[in-house]
Amino acid sequence: MPIPATMRYVDHGNGGGPEVLKVATREVPELGAGEVLIEVVAAGVNRPDCIQRSGRYPPPADASPHLGLEVAGRIVALGQGVTEWKIGEAVCALANGGGYADYAAAPAGQVLPVPAGLTMLQAAALPDT
């Protein structure tokens, strides 16, 4: 299945309580060398996400400005130099932001296989929380 040009993501605007969250549309992340693109099935919710949502945590300059550090799903594309993963593998990952979306990029070294016996929902809580 081809990867679309745009996707849905959760926008937190300028920050605030949970009521600021809304679904918006943006481009699918472009992969850098050493990254994988994951079609997200589930995303974890952790304290850094909540602090960023509130507007009290600016992400690092090299990270996505969008919410979501933990994801689980299937790899749909490989960045240059990625040899340890294959398209279609079920994984969970610690993304550098942007996980509350249909697709998320993650450094290949921050990707883990979904452990046997865990659902994608359970696996999304592993990488950070």
Task: Describe the protein in words.
With 129 residues, the chain is mainly beta. It has one domain: Quinone Oxidoreductase, Chain A, domain 1. It is built from two helices and seven strands. The longest helix is centred in the middle third of the chain and has 8 residues, at 47-54. The chain is globular. The model has no long low-confidence stretch (mean pLDDT 96).
What is the secondary structure topology, with strand pairs?
Layout: E1 6-11, E2 22-27, E3 35-43, H1 47-54, E4 70-78, E5 90-94, E6 103-107, E7 111-113, H2 120-123
Antiparallel strand pairs: 1-2, 3-4, 3-6, 4-5, 5-7
Counted by DSSP, the helix tally is: 2
Based on CA atoms alone, the radius of gyration comes out at: 14 Å
Q: Find the structural class using helix and strand composition.
A: mainly beta
Number of domains: 1
Q: Rough shape? A: globular
Indicate the percent of residues in helices: under 10%
- According to DSSP, the number of beta strands is 7
Poorly predicted runs are none
Main β-sheet: number of strands, strand sense, barrel status? 5 strands, antiparallel
Helix-strand pattern: EEEHEEEEH
Q: What is the strand content? A: 25-35%
CATH architecture: Alpha-Beta Complex
CATH superfamily: Medium-chain alcohol dehydrogenases, catalytic domain
